[in-house]
């Protein structure tokens, strides 16, 4: 027998999400591979078309579980464009706080995810403990830990609870004080450094061929292309932050950028707390409270910067109480599906889990 078929996931500790990568190997070299993403959620686009506009608020976060709030923002922005709705000023800043916490949470999950396939479980435990602290903050703000259903068309569901600023500052200060420790556990660990250096390459030519955005593109091209900068939404044009880049496209460069972006998100949240005005946080949509509001005829595309790249919703309304057509631009589709099929072959078995982790693959975005 020259080739053997192996399965990475959905139960493998190196697999991120409910998906399975099917590997055909010769020895420890991958000869061919493909992703089977339909292990949990699927059919979101048709599901949204069969639900009321307001019902979709509880459906869309499941398109990417580690970073559900990105879906809420893209959906809400698209609906607001169709309604020609102006969101209250305070809501913009609250949305940014939620989105940046979601970004930190996703990056910590990915950075800690290096621990599974490399045997460094200390890194994984630390990262998941801090992510759990973020979920505590989400629970205080939204009442829920994972699926928040907080960013809604017209603003946010409710205002921040009294005193939450103190808890946010305390967490950010604690996390920032330990970023050097995170660096030592990951980048400073000889085993991890050896596993992610000069491997799982994503060269610039492949970036343009597949349409990769986000960290994958910024690590290979050195271009500061971040939708928060080039197409600002919410109030990202009123805060200062850097966009980390690299011109070397190995896994180590992508991991390094993730950790640097955590620091930038910390800075953004602090600025939001400082600049956020008082006022209303939501536009009342009339009969929306009884779940039967309609959206005028038209179409809109809304794109936001997720931890994996450009995440967009294309939505068409025929004037009814449900979307007529929804198309989701999953940020991890290019490298998560096309990249696994075309560029994972030729690498080693032990690189497969690191590909899924450092490329930021979220399977429901693909089988949507």
Any descriptors?
globular, alpha+beta, single chain, 368 residues, 8 strands, three-stranded antiparallel beta sheet, 15 helices, Cytochrome-c3 Hydrogenase, chain B
Structural features, described:
- This protein is an alpha+beta fold and 368 residues long.
- The protein has a single domain (45-359), classed as Orthogonal Bundle (Cytochrome-c3 Hydrogenase, chain B), CATH 1.10.645.10.
- The chain is 45% helix and 13% strand.
- The protein has 15 helices and eight strands.
- The strands form three sheets. Strands 1-2-3 form a three-stranded antiparallel sheet.
- Helix 4 runs antiparallel to helix 13, helix 7 runs antiparallel to helix 13 (251-275) and helix 11 packs across helix 13.
- The longest helix is centred in the last third of the chain and has 25 residues, at 251-275.
- The radius of gyration is 20 Å and the shape is globular.
- 49% of the residues are buried.
- The mean pLDDT is 90.
Q: In terms of structural class, how would the helical and strand content be classed?
A: alpha+beta
Estimate percent helicity.
Answer: 40-55%
> Mean pLDDT, rounded to whole units?
90
Based on CA inertia axes, which overall geometry fits?
globular
User: N-to-C SSE series?
Assistant: EEEHHHHHHEEHHHHHHHEEEHH
| Poorly predicted residue ranges | none
Query: Beta-sheet strand percentage?
Result: 5-15%
Report how far the terminal alpha carbons are from each other. Answer: 36 Å
CATH topology: Cytochrome-c3 Hydrogenase, chain B
Radius of gyration: 20 Å
CATH architecture: Orthogonal Bundle
